[in-house]
Amino acid sequence: RELCVASLQSSHAVEERGTGITGGALRWLALRRLRGVTRIELVDCGELTKASITSAVAGCDSLASLSALRVGPGSWALGHIERLLAVAPPNLASVRLDVLLEMKKDLHEGSHLLAALARPSLRVEKLTLVSDNVSRAAAPSDASGAEAATAALAALDVGSDGDDDAAEEGAEGAPCALGRLCAALLAGGGVEELDASSGALDLPGAASRLLAPLLTARGCLLRRLSARHLDRRSVRTLARALRSNGSLDSLNLSSNMVYGRAASDFAAALAGHASLTALDLDHNPLLDGGGAAVAAVLPSTPIRSLSLCFTGVGDAACDALALALAGDCRLRSLRLSGNRITSSGATSLAASLGKLAHLDLTANVRLDGAATAALAIALPASALRSLRLSGCNVDRKACSRLAAALPLSRLARLDLSSNHFSDGGSDELAWVLGGCGSLTALSLADCNIGDEGADELLEALADADAPPSVRSIDLRWNKLGSTHQGGRGVSGDPRADASSQKQRTAAERQTEHLEHTWQQAKAAGKPQKVYVPKWQREARKAAGGGGGTGPSAVG
């Protein structure tokens, strides 16, 4: 309250960003201190509610500008907006909100929400489209809406390149509801962020009726676009629209049908784009051809973040990415999780890390220790700050290579989870933690680390002579015993998360019992026969340990 009062006295404005201001405090200000205020800006205030903001606006007769973005749970729905506009003072000329639109309820002819979106005074920073099963059904005929969308498309010169596309983009093939939405957004000045990641645009003509006109409109404000479940025709229509767009800086097309010719057309449309800095193509069947096509245009774009997770790319795409990284490329973050990359592709990337700051190779199960070794060799000379190798078959020897390179690198975050190198690998890392001046986060979850490995890590964390810079270490889903759980051992260190340990299997409990019995008999000097199941005897024999000595046979 004191900060708000001071701000009011100096500028007749309330500005709250990411603070814990509550609805009660805002209502108190509205009743006692907001007389004469002309501007209210509320951003990322999770404790507020839409109702408390509406009450505050109702008490500010002089309010001229309101921004309420990411406040409380969810976005502004139709009911919230209607109540806000009903109490808005006459001088309120600018309202900036993030809006939720339900495809079933809010796109019919005469929709109050569409009418609100068309008001020049209402600026929509983010529009979230929510899908449902009913919205996927055929929309009622509305010739005027369809003709308006078609005319807007023709005026913006977004043509087709085939009879199949022309049929899809015709007036009869697109829901009229999308035409109404596009017309409302263009009349209201556009939208800065469109989020259709729920699959709400899985409709005929989604690209031609809505996305293309928004992207190619004169004075386009659209900066961030996220759309899923677009078909190949819509992707190609979107690619043609991107050629005429100069405002988009973030594009998320994960889980679409970008493959084959569509992938090549899309990559060609990106070439020379002036503003795009983040591109997400996760879960599209790009394969090596599509991945290489995207990599080829990177030097001619300002893209700094590229995500190609679960796209089927392999070593050929990695070679193309390495070639782009070695040239004049602005890429700083590269995500390649869940692909078909082998050690050959990882070695190519390692040789061309350049200025790359973030590399994610999670769940590339074809990688092996050679890939980790190549990355370790490249670490000291690279600018890499974050490296994720979760589920990449990192073994103890690879851990040793990484441990040797860590003190010489700039890494701040290292993720080695789901690599079952056990205590031997964790020991290698524990011994160098004190010399890693930049490492702040280390993930060793699900690495089969036991009590001995936890002992070494605890000793490294408690080293007073060379305290490590690590602020968090993830040890969940390992095999830590009771000595390192419940606030004891390594779990007592606030930097370590040792919760949710694996439960021992029946075979592991039996083996532990046999080992304990063997050690007791050996200490007592009394040879004792111990029964061992056949599968354990065969496993030891196959490993070269023999099947008739030690605890597997006689004490």
Verbal overview:
Pfam families: LRR_6. Residues 505-516 have a biased composition (Basic and acidic residues). Residues 481-555 are annotated as: Disordered. The protein is an alpha/beta fold. 38% of the residues lie in helices and 13% in strands. It has a 17-stranded parallel sheet. Helix 14 links the parallel strand 11 and strand 12. It is globular. The termini are far apart.
Summarize the structure.
This protein has 20 helices and 17 strands. It has 555 residues and is of the alpha/beta class.
Key traits:
555 residues, alpha/beta, Leucine-rich repeat, LRR (right-handed beta-alpha superhelix), 17-stranded parallel beta sheet, 20 helices, 13% strand, globular, GTPase activator activity, RanGap, small GTPase binding
Approximate helicity band: 25-40%
- Strand tally is 17
Query: How many helical stretches?
Result: 20
Q: Sheet bearing the most strands, described?
A: 17 strands, parallel
Low-confidence sequence ranges = 133-174
- The end-to-end span amounts to 76 Å
Average pLDDT value?
85
CATH class of the domain at 394-503: Alpha Beta
Per CATH, the superfamily of the domain at 394-503 is: Ribonuclease Inhibitor
Please tell me what the overall shape is: globular
Beta content: 5-15%
Q: What's the CATH topology name of the domain at 394-503?
A: Leucine-rich repeat, LRR (right-handed beta-alpha superhelix)
CATH architecture of the domain at 394-503: Alpha-Beta Horseshoe
Helix/strand structural class: alpha/beta
Rg value:
30 Å
Biased composition (Gly residues): 543-555
Region (Disordered): 481-555
Biased composition (Basic and acidic residues): 505-516
Pfam family, one: LRR_6
